[in-house]
Design goal:
This protein is an alpha+beta fold and 395 residues long. It has twelve helices and twelve strands. Helix 2 crosses helix 7 and helix 5 crosses helix 6.
């Protein structure tokens, strides 16, 4: 099972080494969560060896308007978008245009102020840059169109002082670091960021149902709505505004991509197959192998300190890889991939709603896109349960 096959056909699960009963348990778990009101709907996909054994919409993609979920729904990926942006950065490194140790200031001279002179591309990719890490834009800016404007947000971030020594601390960076990476991609290439991602990553992989930015009135766009009203969820509620400010003109490298489950499956499969899909080389095998490793060691992600306390979650390692997501690694701790995923597994997660994961040992790919946000680590706890159920499908 080494070749990626048709990304739309669904095979008999038994014929590809998937347990039908386990797939039903996964489907039932999602349906049960929706029935409890934890979220409104989802589209899930499970594949083995590049062949899909389960691809199903469940619940509603827009509960307020009684719109059932469908396979061609285009979800706001939130931070899963980082994996696509990271792939474009790593492709430039593969080509020798830039390197991991290229200083940001070498490409964006105005960034080199207030202690940020030594920050590198590697620091940005691993959330160790010590740059602005707030969920809101840096002052004096307010939440709004600046989030979709790479040039303006890069200028705002560049004006901020260093918050920690580069490489010393891991603090997940919702917007700033990957916005700066998007500006680097634009400056070394010359084309608009959106066009670069379309031409270099999305279209070569056949991801024709994906784009950075999308018309607000697109018929298959899934609106961002809160479903989890647990303590701490209020801050994420500002994501409602994305329904208005993220349109077809918005460029948000850290979180502005819209995609279907089929398209994310194509991307995840490219990584599972060491950088190539259907004979199209996107990245070198060496780059993929290096990129999916744990690059933050045993350091914890200080961004989650508040949520760990609020939910009484024990400390756990950040385990950031270079593809805008996480490496499973060894040990028993909270992980979006589930406890039973192989140590070499890797995944990307979007705020409260989205995820793709790959278990390369089991040749298993799982995509979960949901409607109705769950706050912070509540989403990780949900994914840990679903990840274990997905891994159990491999017979």
């Amino acid at each position: 099972m080494s070749e990626l096959l048709d990304a739309t056909a669904v095979s008999d699960p038994r014929s590809i080494g998937l347990d039908p009963d386990a797939l039903e348990r996964l489907r039932s778990a999602v349906a049960g969560d929706i029935a409890k009101g934890l979220y409104h709907g989802a589209v899930i996909l499970v594949a083995r060896g590049g062949q899909i054994g389960l691809h199903e919409p469940i619940g509603h993609s827009d509960l307020a308007n009684d719109r059932p979920a469908q396979l061609d729904d285009r979800f706001f990926l939130a931070s899963v978008s980082k994996s696509l942006t990271a792939a474009a950065v790593l492709k430039l490194i593969d080509r020798g245009v830039i390197s991991f140790d290229t200083r940001v200031a070498d490409v964006i001279p105005e960034f080199a102020v207030r202690g940020k002179q030594r920050v590198t591309i590697y620091h940005l990719l691993t959330h160790t840059a010590g740059t602005w890490s707030g969920f809101l834009p840096p002052p004096p800016h307010h939440w709004g169109p600046i989030i979709g404007n790479i040039a303006e947000l890069t200028a705002a971030v560049s004006a901020q002082p260093l918050t920690g020594m580069p490489g010393e601390h891991v603090v997940y960076n919702p917007w700033a670091d990957f916005t700066v990476l998007g500006e680097i991609i634009h400056r070394v290439d010359g084309r608009p960021f959106r066009d670069i991602l379309r031409d270099e990553i999305l279209h070569p992989l056949g991801m024709t149902e994906s784009s950075f930015g999308l018309e607000v009135d697109h018929p298959r766009r899934v609106p961002v709505r809160m479903s989890d009203l647990a303590p701490g969820a209020a801050e994420v509620d500002i994501m409602h505004s994305f329904n208005d400010i993220i349109d077809e003109t918005a460029e948000m490298p850290a979180g502005g991509c819209f995609a279907t489950t089929r398209d994310l499956f194509r991307f995840a499969e490219m990584l599972r197959l060491s950088g190539t899909r259907d004979g199209v080389r996107v990245l070198s095998p060496a780059m993929v192998e290096y990129g999916v490793r744990n690059h933050t060691g045993t350091k914890t992600n200080q961004f989650w300190d508040f949520s760990k306390e609020a939910r009484d979650v024990p400390d756990f390692p950040a385990n950031f890889m270079l593809f805008g997501g996480y490496s499973r690694g060894e040990g028993h701790f909270l992980t979006c991939m589930g406890h039973t995923a192989s140590p070499s597994s890797f995944a990307a997660v979007g705020s409260g709603s989205t995820m793709w994961m790959v278990d390369p040992v089991r040749e298993l790919t799982f995509v979960f896109l949901s409607a109705g946000l769950m706050e912070g680590l509540g989403h990780f706890q949900r994914l840990q349960r679903l990840g274990d159920l997905a891994v159990a499908c491999a017979s």
